[in-house]
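User: Continuing from earlier, I have the next pair ready.

Assistant: Great, send them over.

User: Here they are, in order.

Assistant: Folding the first of the pair now:
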Amino acid sequence: MIQREDQGKLLQRAEEFMQVFKKGADFTQELMRENEKLRYRLVQLEEQSRLASCAGQALREVEMLKARIVDLEREKNEILQRIKLVESENIDFANRYVEIEAENNSLARLYIATYQLHATLDFREVLKIISEIIINLIGGEEFAIFLLDENTGTLQAMAGEGVVVQDLPVFALGQGVPGMVAREGESFFSETLDGLEPEKPLACIPLKIKNRVIGVLAVYRLFIQKRRFAEIDHELFTLLAGHAATAIFASKLYCESERKLTTIQGFLDLLTK
């Protein structure tokens, strides 16, 4: 009986040991499973950390690229502004070159015209050449040349184009724009280039020899439609007026001397007969 009891106890203990061993084995397996989960989770966390680090690096690179793009955009705008400035300067230079070419051509034509003007002493021919210069060089469509009669102190039209010279009024000194220009000796240029009356020409330039006014040049209409007179127009008018005054004065002196010479020669012929 005692042996049986001992055997029963041994079996019971063995069974309890097996249960404890089984529980230990189950616990070990559970620990292994938890350990595997933890290792997997650790790998996930490491991967997430690596990805987060890569993402942070990528974000930093993106920010750097954005800053670089902003710098490049600013540099591009600066370059475009410089290009526009250079293009504007090139256009200004080109326009100025064209203006200078036009001025040089006008001055060359004026030089040739004035050479022709001073090559004759015939009064009527001088007035004709002056009219041709105004037409071809300045583009005058309607104009008149007034000369001052020092005996009466009046301006009388002696030649013109596009106007009936005989119908133009006689201006006293100080009367109308021509009379004012003759009295003051200063050029007049209208602010508007519309057709005006004989008393109000577009431009009126005194014909002067030093400070002595011998007449005026009055322009009423131009062939070329302009909004205003350019600086070159003022210079051409001034140059033309100076040469015209000299040529007219010289031709008048020559005509008067010719008449006096003819009179003296006739008187001498009468004396010698």
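And the other member of the pair:
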Amino acid sequence: MQKIEDGCVVSLAFTLSDDEGNILDESPDDEALVYMHGAAGIVPALEEALEGKVAGDAFDVTLLPEDAYGDYLEEAVVQIARDQVREGQPLELGMQVEDSSGQHPPRLVTGLTETTVTLDSNHPLAGLTLRFQGTVAEVRRATDEELAQV
């Protein structure tokens, strides 16, 4: 039976929750999360915890923020003038926008006034302790074509 190691395509049936038990994400019943092990497709600490498992193995991994998406950084939240947002881009709370310079990745709109936009560059899961629970659905060696895409 193929063990999870670098160069394997892995399918996971999972539930992701925070430290209060609130479900943040889960794989649909008929659709597992698929990633290539060793190709930075999932959080490194989770990948490390899955190393060596085989199809059918259960997992239950709790990650502190520093092992997941980092701490929430107040300095990653900025307020800019509305005219600094790419022209013609509609603005709504919760949407991702780019500034007019194009020098920043898209950021989450967390506040709006008539003249300003508040943008948050933190990952949506930053600052959270996360619990990944589930089952390894499938493990197989990646094809040459899949390996070439990494």
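Worth noting for the second one:
The domain at 8-70+125-148 is CATH 3.10.50.40 (Chitinase A; domain 3). Helices lie at 44-50, 144-148.
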